[in-house]
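User: Hi! Is it possible to get a structure for several chains at once, not just one? Here's what I have:
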Amino acid sequence: MWEILSFNYFQNALMGSILAGVGLGIVGVWVVLLRIPFVGVAISHAAFAGSVIGLLFGVNPIMMAIVFSLLASILIGPIAEKSGLEANVIIGIIFSLVLGVAFLGLGLIKGPKTEAFNLIWGSILTLSRINIYLNAGITFFVILFLLFFGKEIKAVFYNREVAASCGIPEKFIFFSLLFLSGFVICLNLNTIGGILIFSLLINPPSAARILTHSLSKMYMLSILFGIVACLAGLFFSYVFAVPAGATIIIISSLIFIISMVSRGRNGS
Amino acid sequence: MIKIQKVSLSFSGKEVLSEVSLDIKKQDFVAIIGPNGAGKTSLLKIINGLLIPDTGKIGVFDLDPVRDGLAVRRRIGFIFQNEFITRNVPLSVKDVVSVGRIGVKGLFRNLDKKDFESTRNAMDEVGISDLENRPAGFLSGGEQRKVSIARELARDVEILLLDEILMNLDPASQMEINSLITRIYKRHKLTVVFVTHLLRYLPQGINRVVALKNGKVFSDFSPDDFNSKDLSLLYDVDEENLKKYVGNFKF
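Assistant: Yes, the chains can be modeled jointly so their relative placement is included. Here is the combined structure:
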């Protein structure tokens, strides 16, 4: 069984799993505490729309997926600010727009559309070294951002208006959180897939939140649960020859259920 | 300390403030009253630069809150009317009070011993030290108000803007918060602007009452000069009916 570790594709999958666990574990905390869980769905479908447009116009679909999802994550904050609507509403508007663009593109593509759908289903066993390097880069950047702006992020979670009145540049922090969340989600689409990433984004931090009232512990538990879900999912998918992405999600959901059951009656 | 000159502000074509002028001096303790929608909250937000007026001039500490927003806000405390601590966010009382120090500290610098000392002193002064490790979202309304007051106290601010902070509190908590505000005002020699609808329960020490109506300054009196007639004109209600409701009105 251990000979599998000597294969390049499995080593990539292992590294991809750990990076997904760390990156999504951190931005999952942001997304859950900012109460914008559907940002994952909107960003992944923006990537899908991007890859469809890429295929349609003969441009690299992965590059277009990154461009579209980054564009979506950059736009959410300023549009919410300008319109006076909640970020969740703008996420819904962007989600429906990119879905419309994706379906329009799909209708116009004459040839195979597999490459576009790969981003929706994910394919952890076909991760390339380039994927790993990109994921490692953004995960490292997210950790640095958290280290440098951790206290300001805490204030934004507490109350954006209070943070602004305390002289904290809350717009910069809020927009950065949205943008970085979009970036991490986008670069992990190959690992987990656009539909399934939602679960890995929400389950680990939610399970962590149930177990602790401390923000720093919530980060640590969320990362731990993310890594455990990814590695265990990879292991079981290999042992039982079942799809890795789906297994990862089922395990992350199980972690959430176990946390909920183990919590005291009144949340203690 | 706060100079407001002919400030006007509109939202979606509706004028919220109309040529409001007000001069608030150092250590003034001003109550701002008026009907719902009179522009009280907007006025507070203009003072600390969270809203930008359409026309007019405003100076705070001789700075322009529009141009020098961060610098002004770091010296002004603000407690919002609908401020509550959500259970969703895992922060302890100590965490929330220390949020006050974050703006003072600025970017790229961690909170240090002095900041934690200010946080502790503020909690001591407000009387919530025994709650410091409790999850802030699980506190009662009165306790949450004290946490907000401690947060602003920890910042060593010079001006305190309080927007209906007695809202949703029981009478005992209202009295407690009122006497706390008076104590803080005297001890720290602050300038306090206190927006309220609870006219019979103003904190002691208020030396001026500014009434806003339809976005304009309706009156600017000493609390002793304000009576039932003024009140009936301010709220557009019949004086006799008003007397049945609040008796012979006196602050």
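The interface with chain B takes residues 32-33, 35, 148-149, 151-152, 154-155, 157-159, 161-169, 209, 212-215, 217-218 of chain A (CB under 8 Å). The mean pLDDT of chain A is 89.

User: Great, thank you!
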